[in-house]
């Protein structure tokens, strides 16, 4: 018979070996790299919510924030912080915004795109901090781009020709403003005219591109060639000059309307009035244009009056230097801030085309008075002298800048002309020397 002691000794030895083996395995397991161990992910519930959207119509900053879950205490704090750098009344519908808030209704950060260049940011690092607001530039990439096109039967206006060149109407308006003292784009553009531009274009994320300055432009109109080069003279403002350094800015713009109108009645001492049905002088020029089209001051000056009567309708009268006064009749509305005594700049919107007063349809009756007598605006504008030329001390710098810009321009225009021989298309391209420069911002 086996004694109890002889039976227990091997059992205890076996138990010790098992414990030692288990300890060894456990140690090797702890020494193994983390990737070899089995683990269970712990899902943490987010403590904030990110909301993206567009500002709805007929809302305020306060209502926008409250409608998206901020408690009123947080809303008031954000609005107060924003008001230090941004007028909340400037909140515009359809502009994008981003809001990050806690589940308890407090602000983490809020961003609102003010315009194509800047955005408002309000942030709060912690619940113990007050919200802080700032207006920042939107990050963009700058490109030097060229475009060229031509006026044709299928693209009879500068707007349409620019669209055929894959560019936006804003670029057509900018070019028309440069040459506004040299050509009336309302009446003098015709099939066969050609144009080219070298300009800045800014791109960002997936948003539409925006335009910067036009560096050079050329417009070929009825046998004449108009060129413009952007240059900043010493201690001066940016201006446009022709290739010889002569200023393109004139005392008067060629027209108080930017695009698309037509002259329906010229300056005459005897015209049949369509409403009164009598012959009488017409001491101005009638431009046919759609209701609401912007009317601009042809020169800098002072508002003499902004009035309404049954004959002239809404009318703005401006006084300029050299004994000139201009009249803008039958307006549907006055421009912002237009009232007697206010100063206006050349090109500033002073009203909108309408048909108020004795008018059979929407048009602008534009009149020009010189030293107390009404004169023909078209003839007077054409005889206006140009502004100051590039100073002699800056001519060398001007020629360097001008030659570079015109070289870019002519390459694109030559390519467009070659393409046009095969098919009537316009072109737009980034130049081989594309220059990019990041600009800080968000959204």
Question: Which key terms come to mind for this protein?
Answer:
8-stranded antiparallel sheet; 24 strands; 3 domains; extended; alpha+beta; 6-stranded antiparallel sheet; 443 residues
Describe the structure in your own words:
The protein is an alpha+beta fold and 443 residues long. The chain folds into three domains: 90 residues, Nuclear Transport Factor 2, Chain: A, CATH 3.10.450; 153 residues, Nuclear Transport Factor 2, Chain: A; 121 residues, Glucose Permease (Domain IIA). It is built from seven helices and 24 strands. The strands form five sheets. Strands 11, 14, 16, 17, 18, 20, 22 and 23 form an eight-stranded antiparallel beta sheet that branches. A six-stranded antiparallel beta sheet has the order 10-9-8-7-6-24. It has a five-stranded antiparallel beta sheet with strand order 1-2-3-4-5, covered by helices on one side. The longest helix has 28 residues. The C terminus is likely disordered.
Shape: extended
Number of domains: 3
Instruction: Tell me the total number of β-strands.
Output: 24
**Which regions are unreliable across 5 or more consecutive residues at pLDDT < 50?**
269-273, 275-279, 422-443
From the alpha-carbon coordinates, what is the Rg to the nearest angstrom? 35 Å
Q: Please give the alpha-carbon distance between the first and last residues.
A: 91 Å
Tell me what portion of residues adopts beta-strand conformation: 25-35%
Number of helices: 7
Largest sheet: 8 strands, antiparallel
Look at the structure and give the mean pLDDT: 81
Portion of residues in helices?
10-25%
Query: Under the CATH scheme, which architecture of the largest domain would be assigned?
Result: Roll
Structural class: alpha+beta
CATH level 3 topology of the largest domain: Nuclear Transport Factor 2, Chain: A
The CATH C-level class name of the largest domain: Alpha Beta
């Amino acid at each position: 018979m086996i004694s109890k002691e002889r039976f227990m000794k091997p059992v205890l030895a076996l138990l010790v070996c098992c414990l030692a083996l288990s300890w060894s395995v456990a140690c090797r397991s702890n020494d193994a790299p983390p990737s070899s161990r089995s683990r269970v992910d712990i899902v943490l519930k987010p403590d904030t919510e990110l909301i993206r959207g567009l500002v709805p119509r007929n809302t305020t900053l306060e209502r926008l924030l409250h409608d998206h879950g901020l408690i009123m205490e947080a809303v008031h704090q954000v609005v107060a912080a924003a008001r230090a750098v941004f007028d909340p009344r400037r909140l515009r519908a359809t502009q994008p915004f981003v809001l990050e808030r806690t589940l308890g209704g407090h602000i983490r950060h809020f961003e609102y795109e003010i315009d194509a260049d800047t955005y408002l940011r309000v942030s709060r690092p912690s619940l113990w901090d007050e919200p802080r607001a700032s207006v920042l530039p939107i990050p963009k990439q700058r490109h030097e781009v060229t475009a060229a096109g031509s006026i044709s039967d299928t693209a009879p206006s500068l707007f349409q020709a620019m669209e055929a060149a894959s560019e936006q109407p804003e670029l057509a308006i900018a070019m028309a403003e440069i040459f506004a003292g040299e050509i009336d784009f309302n009446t003098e553009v015709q099939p066969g005219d050609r144009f080219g531009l070298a300009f800045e274009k800014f791109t960002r994320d997936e948003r539409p591109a925006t335009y910067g300055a036009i560096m050079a432009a050329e417009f070929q109109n009825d046998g004449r060639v108009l060129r413009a080069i952007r240059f900043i003279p010493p201690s001066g403002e940016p201006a446009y000059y022709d290739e010889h350094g002569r200023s393109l800015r004139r005392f008067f713009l060629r027209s108080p309307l930017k695009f698309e109108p037509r002259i329906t009645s010229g300056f005459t001492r005897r015209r049949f009035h369509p409403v009164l049905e009598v012959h009488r002088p017409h001491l101005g020029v009638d431009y046919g244009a759609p209701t609401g089209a912007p009317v601009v001051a042809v020169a800098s000056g002072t508002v003499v009056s902004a009035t309404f009567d049954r004959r002239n309708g809404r009318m703005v009268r401006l006084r300029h230097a050299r004994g000139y006064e201009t009249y803008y009749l039958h307006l549907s509305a006055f421009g912002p801030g237009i009232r007697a005594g206010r100063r206006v700049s050349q090109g500033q919107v002073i009203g909108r085309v309408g048909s108020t007063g004795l008018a059979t349809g929407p048009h602008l009756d534009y009149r020009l008075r010189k030293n107390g007598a009404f004169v023909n605006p078209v003839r007077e504008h054409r005889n206006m002298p140009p502004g100051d030329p590039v100073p002699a001390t800056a001519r060398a710098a001007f020629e360097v800048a001008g030659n570079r810009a015109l070289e870019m321009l002519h390459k694109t225009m030559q390519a467009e002309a070659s393409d046009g021989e095969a098919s009537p298309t316009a072109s737009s391209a980034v130049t081989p020397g594309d220059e990019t420069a990041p600009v800080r911002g968000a959204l």
